[in-house]
Amino acid sequence: MAISSKYIAIFLIFIFLSFPSKITCQSENNNTTQSKCGSDTGHGCRNKNEALKLKLVAIASILVTSMIGVCLPLVSRTVPALQPDKNLFVLVKAFASGVILATGYMHVMPDSFDCLRSDCLPDNPWKKFPFTTFVAMLSAILTLSVDSYAMSYFKKYKLENNGVGNGRDIVHNGKMESHIFDNNISHVHGEAKVDDNATQLLRYRVVAQVLELGIVVHSVVIGLSMGASDNPCTIRPLVAAICFHQLFEGMGLGGCILQAEYGMKIKAIMVFFFSLTTPFGIALGIGLSKVYSENSPTALIAVGLLNACSAGLLNYMALVDLLAADFLGTKLQNSMKLQSWAYVAVLLGAGGMSIMAIWAKIVLRGKRKVFRHFFFNLIFFHHPCKYKF
Fold first, then answer.
1. How confident is the model at residue 277 (pLDDT cuts 50, 70, 90)?
2. Pairing state of beta strands 185-193 and 175-182?
3. What 8-state DSSP symbol labels residue 365?
4. Phi-psi bin for 174: left (phi > 0), alpha (psi -120 to 50), beta?
5. CA–CA separation, 213 vs 217, rounded Å?
6. Which of 147, 184, 214, 362 has the greatest number of CB atoms lying within 10 Å of its CB?
7. CB neighbours of 241 closer than 8 A, spacing ≥ 6?
């Protein structure tokens, strides 16, 4: 947890340093572009007082929703059907994993593309190289390395604490043999079987911490953008979208925390960070609203790169540490029926977040009726492609 807190502090400092007090666009020949890039475009829907009220409502509602989402799995021990070894828990976790997967692909990564390919940034280099996918790829590789090194470190630490670290440890045929060398003579000091349950528990703990790190970074960026906006038409749909997002993303994280079997202190710290990061980002955005412009080049680059990092991390965690670990595990492999229902749960979670992404885009553009007609025609096999969003 100390590692996660350290990285969170680094990201927050980076965000603070990314906002200049006075920003202008690169192109001085186009006054319209300068005006657009120098300030937030409200499309005639700017009301600072109303926006502030909505932000305060958002802070309270998102805080409560986040706490409910992340705490639901933690209190599920009192419900027999929601125990980690029960089928219902597997389905709920699969649904939440689908939400996290769609968050990376449908929300965070497109936002990064929008930022780094904005007209407010110069064509060279931002439009000549796919920075979003490149940074997301590096982030996924970095997440893999953190995952791998953390497992190796904690395994070594655990073995040394158990008295199996004297001399040289050799793994042979599933057993750990510890050899002590004295005057070039090797003696078998002892054997210790690798504890599969302890290894799995360690795996759960690494997954929970790395996943929370990615969620925290993404949540701060989301909250910051909302807090800095004075556009009620933008904030209003975002409140509903973020509440839905935090609820089910919290359930996924809560399931990982539950499986990690942390003590009450660590659980409380992880719940605290998850629940407060988005409200903290909103409050930070409110405080920086006078000096922060979401369309400024520096802000676009900072937010775009952070979103790309978060997207790579979330996509890796959702696919490798959550979905692959469960679907290739013994429980789902031994039951084709449960595996099929788990796939349905994943598709429902990912589909729900994808619809939320479409809804947010359309509502932000003031096309609620188009959204309703689009899905009506989609359901009844008419021609939804004629609608332009």
1. very high
2. antiparallel
3. T
4. left
5. 6
6. 214
7. 356, 359, 360
Give tens-digit pLDDT for 370-382. 445 544 454 455 5
Q: What is the DSSP string of 13-34?
A: HHHHHT--SS---S-SS-HHHH
Over residues 315-345, the pLDDT tens digits come to 998 999 889 988 998 889 999 999 999 999 9
Place of tokens 């158990």: 162
SS (H, E, C) 35-100: HHHHCCCCCCCCCHHHHHHHHHHHHHHHHHHHHHHHHCCCCHHHCHHHCCCCHHHHHHHHHHHHHH
Tokens of 203: 């795996």
- Listing DSSP states for 172-229 in one string gives ETTEEEEEEEETTEEEEEEEEE--HHHHHHHHHHHHHHHHHHHHHHHHHHHHHHHHH-
Q: Are the beta carbons of 90 and 331 closer than 8 angstroms? A: yes
Asked if residue 297 has a cis previous peptide bond (ω within 30° of 0), the answer is no
